[in-house]
Amino acid sequence: MRFKLIVVGVCMLTFMGCSDEATTEEKKVLPTKTSSEVKTSEEVKVSKKDNESESSDEMEILENRQKKIALENTLTEEGLKSTHTALLQELQKLKWDKEILSEKFELQRMEDEKKAYEEEKKYDKERKEQEQLLSKLAYKANLAEIEAKQLLNEIELERAAIEFKQVKLDSELAFLKSKKTREVYITEKVTYLDNPLSEDNQTLTISDRRVELNGMITAEMALSISKQINYFNNKDHKKPIFLVIDRSEGGAVMAGNLILRTIDSSEAPVYVVLKSLAASMAAVIVTLAEKSYAYPHAILLHHQAMTYHYNEMTNLTEEREQYETLEEVWNIFGLPVAKKMNLTSEEFIKQMYAHSSKGNWQEFAIEAQKLKWVNNIVLRIIDKSVRVDPMHKEEGETEVESYDNPYAISKELIDKEGKPFMYLPRLSPADSYLIYNPDGYYRMR
């Protein structure tokens, strides 16, 4: 196609060149043919200048000559056209082909533009759809976020309401605990009496300056009792201190001696109070105390000092040494008791065996007072030291079963014969049971 266009262009240029040459030749020929006429015209113009009076006939002649020349030129041109008709037709065909190609190119361009427009339109449509989808998704996301925030707000409100209820419940529980605590603990101020014994000598009032002595007297117990007595002395050296014995079978001599020496050293008066049983070293403490008080039927028990060999063989010298040690112990604790009774050591020991084959002389306090084992008998003991409900238990606190615990009764058991029974707690010395037990349900270990 490009080759054809080039050929057509060359032909057109050739044709145009030929036409120009023909036209140039014609132009050159025409002056040749009319040179005389042209000169005549010039002469006429000169003559016109020279003579302005020439007539218009001469102008007319010139015009006719010019017309004739133009006609001749036209005829010459027409002749040339007829000569080159084939070339003109070819040229026309080339122009038409050119126009056709231009139209095709234009049509193709329009189709391309249309296709591009449609694609762009399709792209715009897809882009708009995507934008709409994104907008819709954004709207949904925004809506979901709002709903989530609303839900969180509702949850926060519910949580706040629950926390408020919890705080309210905690407050009510704390109030109830506080109320219960107030019921458990006595907050009333304790009144300290200089003379805790009533005027009729039958009632003793114990304050919270109270020290307990219960169970086996050990070095650890003696140290604790000594510290408590010293504490109350340092706090107030005038108000009475109460050493209360509910039940004690006695114990270590040296521990008992520490308790006695602490009582003697106390500036504040120490009242030794017996409620149930004081045997051996505990009985010595009650008897040797300056101020001692007991219930009428509390029991006091005295006996000689004893020792154990722990199944070991001893020789005569060792036996003599141990005997001498026991005599020294008896002189320290037994002899003062005998002197208080206005007896000699031998008389006191003799009476022990007169009252018991084993030498364990026990008496109720009402009789022991006559023997000077206890100074005073009281019918009532008002214990102001009990400031906490004794049945109250702290969280996690459990009651331990023990023979020393009066409430520690065993669970029901089944014997070999299939009979149910229950073990009774261990009795303390000088104690006994008064219980109706016809079928032997309650048994001793």
Topology:
Blueprint: H1 2-50, H2 57-83, H3 85-184, E1 203-206, E2 210-212, H4 219-235, E3 241-248, H5 253-265, E4 270-279, H6 281-288, E5 291-294, E6 299-302, H7 316-340, H8 345-355, E7 361-364, H9 365-368, E8 376-377, E9 380-383, E10 413-414, E11 420-423, E12 442-443
Parallel strand pairs: 1-9, 2-3, 3-4, 4-5, 4-6, 5-8, 11-12
Antiparallel strand pairs: 6-7, 10-11
Helix pairs in contact: 1-2, 1-3, 4-5, 5-6, 6-7
Structure description:
- Helices cover 57% and strands 11% of the residues.
- The chain is an alpha/beta fold.
- Among the domains are: 82 residues; 181 residues, 2-enoyl-CoA Hydratase, Chain A, domain 1 (Alpha-Beta Complex); 48 residues, no CATH class.
- The strands form 3 sheets. Strands 2, 3, 4, 5, 6, 7 and 8 form a 7-stranded mixed sheet that branches. Strands 10-11-12 form a 3-stranded mixed sheet, with no helix packed on it.
- Helix 5 links the parallel strand 3 and strand 4.
- Helix 6 packs parallel to helix 7.
- The radius of gyration is 73 Å and the shape is rod-shaped.
- The two termini are 135 Å apart.
- The N terminus is likely disordered.
